[in-house]
Amino acid sequence: MKIGVIGSGSFGTALGSLLADKGYDVALWCRNDSQVESINRDHINNKHLPNFVLPEKLTASKDLRSVVEGKDMIVSSPPSHALTEILREIKGYLPEKVPIVSASKGIENGTLRLVSEIFESELPGKYHAYLSYLSGPSFAKEIIQKVPTIVSIASKNEATARKVQEIFSFLYFRTYWTPDVVGVEVGGSLKNVIALAAGVSDGLGFGQNTRAALITRGLNEITKIGLKLGADPMTFLGPSGMGDLILTCCGEQSRNRTVGFRLGQGETLEQILASMNEVAEGVKTTKSAYELSQKLGIEMAITNEVYKMLYEGKNPKEVVKDLMKRDLKREGVSV
To answer: Which UniProt keywords apply (predicted)?
Structure first.
């Protein structure tokens, strides 16, 4: 089996490494020459994962067409804001009747499209039955280190979901399939917003009580918007819901938690983003999530406050204060 992976960030590289470790021939698309040379010569992604040796069956190329054309499966893992442009470029030579697996997470600014909606609107209908979406609690470095990991594979087509599930399943990587594409997409996107808030809390020096409160109420917000969009509520108790939320809010490898932590420590967003060589999806997703909640008429207090902090310059201490003094509520999810 020949597999093309679009996106050479840490997660795309980790998924490519997993598949190459299983014995598949994997081609990884990179944007710069030094990265291609490092992977092909030294089996190291010098930009994103410099301390890990990659399998020999994983090779790299700057030629997007050669990575995609003639492959038996495509894995798409660019930042969500770059996805539309990439799909428009490759749809002329994208192979037909092969699984297409998306690992991008986010909600597109402006259009407010989920990643699945971007795929379905940008690709012709003949590809739709072969689309699937991978999400769940999975840090890239731990995948490469072969740490036991579980994820969800979502697809509207059961045959596609089961095929992708089988291809990805390995000794240290267990997959669960689900037809709930919307739920998996919403959970994977909005957990990054809550992780920003959890990072701010940690950066301000608050304790685990506060973090647990943010995770709990954050799950409430994710569930509310998911139900409004037609998701299965049980999805949010699975790997791509609660599992990913806990990991992203608590794990020190979480880019979004790190951004929040540094904001809580007093750095500006501009300083933080300028120092990072990978994308923290939650920053852009916060804007889309805020606008989507306004459009749908859903109260999302944490998301609203994170938006004000990122885009209106609100002080992180004021964010926490305003969350704590909100009107008292009844427990539960109501849309």
So the answer is: Cytoplasm, Lipid biosynthesis, Lipid metabolism, NAD, NADP, Nucleotide-binding, Oxidoreductase, Phospholipid biosynthesis, Phospholipid metabolism
Read out DSSP for 204-256? TT--HHHHHHHHHHHHHHHHHHHHHTT--GGGGGSIIIIIHHHHHHH-TT-HH
9 labeled binding residue? yes
Residues 101 and 16: their CA atoms lie apart, in Å, by: 12
Mean pLDDT of the chain, nearest integer: 96
**201 assigned ligand-binding residue:** no
113 is in an annotated binding site: no
**105 labelled ligand-binding:** yes
3-state SS assignment for residue 189: helix
Task: Please tell me the predicted confidence (pLDDT) of residue 295.
Answer: 97
Of 170, 159, 222, 229, the C-alpha closest to 195 is: 222
Q: For 94-117, how does the pLDDT look when each residue is reduced to its tens digit (9 = 90+)?
A: 999 999 999 999 999 999 999 999
Distances (CA, A) of 77 to 7, 53, 242, 262: 5, 20, 22, 26
Give me the residue spans of the domains in the chain. 2-179, 182-325
pLDDT band at 320 (very low <50, low <70, confident <90, very high): confident
Specify the fold of 2-179: Rossmann fold (3.40.50)
User: CA 1 to CA 23: how far, in whole Å?
Assistant: 9
136 is in an annotated binding site: yes
Confidence of residue 334 (pLDDT cuts 50, 70, 90): low
272-298 pLDDT per residue, tens: 999 998 888 999 999 999 999 999 999
Name the nearest CA neighbour of 18 among 133, 127, 125, 164. 164
Q: Which fold has domain 182-325?
A: N-(1-d-carboxylethyl)-l-norvaline Dehydrogenase; domain 2 (1.10.1040)
Q: How confident is the model at residue 328 (pLDDT cuts 50, 70, 90)?
A: confident
